[in-house]
Specification:
There is one protein chain. The protein is built from six helices and five strands, in the order E-E-E-H-E-H-H-E-H-H-H. By secondary structure, the protein is an alpha+beta fold. A three-stranded antiparallel beta sheet has the order 1-2-3, sandwiched between helices. A two-stranded parallel sheet has the order 4-5. The protein is globular. The protein starts with a strand and ends with a helix.
Length: about 160
């Protein structure tokens, strides 16, 4: 997980929570808001986990939202291990950093958002396209969504009771 910042046309901050899956390269969530503090972050994570399931591990930088009391309590309550990268070492969270660069270049820098609602709609469309329409060489030519489905089917075939 990480944050990417931009501004809407009025000058208000646009803070985007980006959550990517290192294994499938899926953009699990890209959530734009004007502000995301610790409590808000945990509510967003509850929503994502309700749709996607809980991760075993979340890797982040040392930002105050990720290291604060709300996040620590949330992780403990949900049995999620938190792994913080070393300060000043974004390469330790390389896939989210790469994703954030692509997100900035292809979405944020291409748009002039007139409102938060406009940003949410455009970002939702871009995220769906990223996951479902862009094959990745590193995933054997599959899209992240197709690769995730293939991986899930393998797990089910190995453990038919799931």
């Amino acid at each position: 997980m990480d944050f990417v910042f931009d501004r809407i046309s009025s000058g208000r901050v646009l803070k985007c929570l980006t959550i990517v899956d290192d294994a499938t390269h899926e953009a699990v969530a890209v959530i734009p808001e004007h502000a995301i503090g610790g409590e808000h972050l945990t509510r967003l994570l509850d929503e994502v986990c309700a749709r996607r399931g809980k991760p075993a591990i979340i890797r982040t930088d040392n930002g105050k939202e990720f290291t604060g009391k709300a996040m620590l309590i949330w992780a403990h309550r949900n049995g999620v291990a938190l792994r913080l990268i070393d300060p000043g070492k974004p390469n330790q969270n390389a896939y989210v950093e790469s994703f954030n660069g692509r997100f900035r270049d292809e979405c944020l820098n291409d748009q002039w958002f007139t409102s938060l609602l406009h940003a949410k709609a455009v970002i939702r469309t871009w995220t769906r396209e990223y996951n479902e329409e862009r094959p990745k060489k590193g995933l054997g030519g599959l899209t992240p969504a197709a690769y995730a489905k293939q991986l899930a089917n393998k797990v089910i075939n190995i453990n038919p009771g799931l």
